Amino acid sequence: MNRLPMCIALVGTIVLCHYSLHAQTLDDMLRISSTNSITGARGGALGTGFMGLADDASAAELNPAGLSLLKHHEVNLGLGMYRRTSDASYLGTTESNSDHEVMPSYLSYASPFRMGRHNAGYSLLLNYDESLRSTYSFGGFNPLSSIVPSMLTDNSDVLTDNLLYQTYVADTLGGLLYSPVVDSMQQHGIVTQTGGRGSFVLGLGFDISPDISIGLSAGSRWSDFSYARAYTETDVANKYNSYDTTGIPRKNIDLQSLTVTDHLHQTASAFFFRFSVMGRLDDWGRLSFSFAPPLSYTVHEDYSRSATAVY
């Protein structure tokens, strides 16, 4: 068999596909700065080089044509260990937080079979390739500012929606919202972020000749991200915990503390597929082409803010 035309075609495909398109990814949306995309021990060790090898269960993710090379049934289970430490400095005070977890990162099953006279194989892959959990806190005495002035303009045209007005921290004066709380507060905040992303992939690969195989994989990706911040200001100097003579209707403010809580929850999901072709040059080389269209994510986001004042 003359393999020269096949070699020229595959090399030409590699040259034409040399340039890659870069776009925003799911990591950008989830605020993840680095990801763990390992779906198998060999794939993790070989990195992008595994796309050319692609002969175990994780081939469904990158190059499903390689599934025709399966020789045995296989089951794979991966564990991920995450340890995170965060330091936050605020008004000359530094606070440290750390956490760790051990959790399954992937589970896969693959099996070879015959399609007539040709080799074939399939793979099921469940992957939880990123876990995000981070907590940090900050605090200190701020003699110069408070969160209150920045919240006076929130929904100020509809007083029933303004949190400061509803918690009696602010009132109207001359047609505008006004609060005597402007500075000299002990401030403390705790921020917690959790989330992750996962995928389920079904892949099939089979030979169409002794040296060429094709493959198709399809699946879904999903993700979630949650952000919570509890921010508290306390009148440790007793500046506002006394009779107020500002002249507004609610004169006696007697404020001890104000807590503002923010919650953000975000989810995303998408369906995807991948097509690939692999050419084998005896036992000394493999050339592959893998194509996946751009993903279209459905994103849902909920945000809420609440406030509690103690007098």
So how many helices? 7
Total number of strands: 10
**Helical amount among residues, as a percent range?**
10-25%
Radius of gyration: 29 Å
Main beta sheet: strand number and arrangement?
8 strands, antiparallel
Return the average pLDDT rounded to an integer. 81
Helix and strand string, N-terminal first? HHHHHEEEHHEEEEEEE
What is the end-to-end distance?
89 Å
Structural class by sheet pairing and helices = mainly beta
Categorize the overall geometry.
elongated
Strand content: over 45%
Low-confidence stretches: 4-23
Q: What this model shows, in words?
A:
- With 311 residues, the chain is mainly β.
- A hairpin with a 2-residue loop joins strand 1 (74-90) and strand 2.
- Mean pLDDT is 81; it is low at 4-23.
- The strands form 2 sheets. Strands 1, 2, 3, 6, 7, 8, 9 and 10 form an 8-stranded antiparallel β-sheet that branches. Strands 4-5 form a two-stranded antiparallel sheet.
- The longest helix has 13 residues, at 4-16.
- The chain has helices at residues 4-16, 26-29, 41-46, 50-53, 59-62, 148-151, 163-166; strands at 74-90, 93-115, 118-142, 171-173, 176-178, 185-209, 212-234, 257-281, 285-291, 298-310.
